[in-house]
Amino acid sequence: MRMCNRYSLTAELSDLTEDFRIDRVQAPYSRRYNISPTQQVPIIQQIGDERFLNQHRWGLMPYWGKNSINANLDSLVDRKYLNSMLKKKRCVVPCSGFYVWRVEGKSKSAWRVVHRTKSTFAMPGIFDVWLDSEKNEFPMCTVITRGTLFDTDHPQPVILDEKALDKWLNPDETRPEILQGLLQRLPEPDFRMYPVMPSVENVGWETPECIAEVHPSLSLVKI
């Protein structure tokens, strides 16, 4: 199964801080058009009564998997390390749209998925901090998914509404059953999918053209 392994965040910083009620910006921010695994990505955390915009490495490491960039909802309670993060180390990964690939015969095509009413939406994440042999800290995160999307094998990120977001970031809430109840899959009609250039699969391509809608024939590439 493919993972949700590319997404974009194209909001202006002023809009992001207003929409998500961010109190402090702790890391450099710029608009991103083709975010890929192992890169530093913007995340939102709550510490005390304040919300921080920070950045973490996208992908958990090292011992529990190779750059685990997604965590399926069904595995959160079954796996002890994920359950521990669910209780104590939650964050939000803001997103403007994510990419999926459709395979048809000997060709695959690239598509971008956006929310119909939210220009930027909140994907729930969990995080940890890895210490290397010299005790250097490497914050890292993963995105929670549930089910698949649009007849592809790509997991669908869960999206939090404003009320669920507040509870998700609340450090005083540690009950797994309550937290899991917030992670409801949204219906497909809430999303729109449109074709983009297949070059988005190239991690080095990072321009506004990544999110541009193209004719379906231009989104195809032979495999």
Automatic annotation (TrEMBL):
Recorded GO molecular functions are: lyase activity; peptidase activity; single-stranded DNA binding
For the biological process aspect of GO, one term held by this record is: proteolysis
Pfam families referenced in this protein's UniProt entry, alphabetically:
SRAP
What the entry lists under InterPro entries is as follows: SRAP, SRAP-like
Top-rank taxon of the source lineage equals Bacteria
Q: Which UniProt keywords apply?
A: Covalent protein-DNA linkage, DNA damage, DNA-binding, Hydrolase, Lyase, Protease
Q: What is its EC number?
A: 3.4.-.-
Which family is annotated?
Belongs to the SOS response-associated peptidase family.
**What is the protein's name according to its record?**
Abasic site processing protein
Origin species: Cohnella endophytica
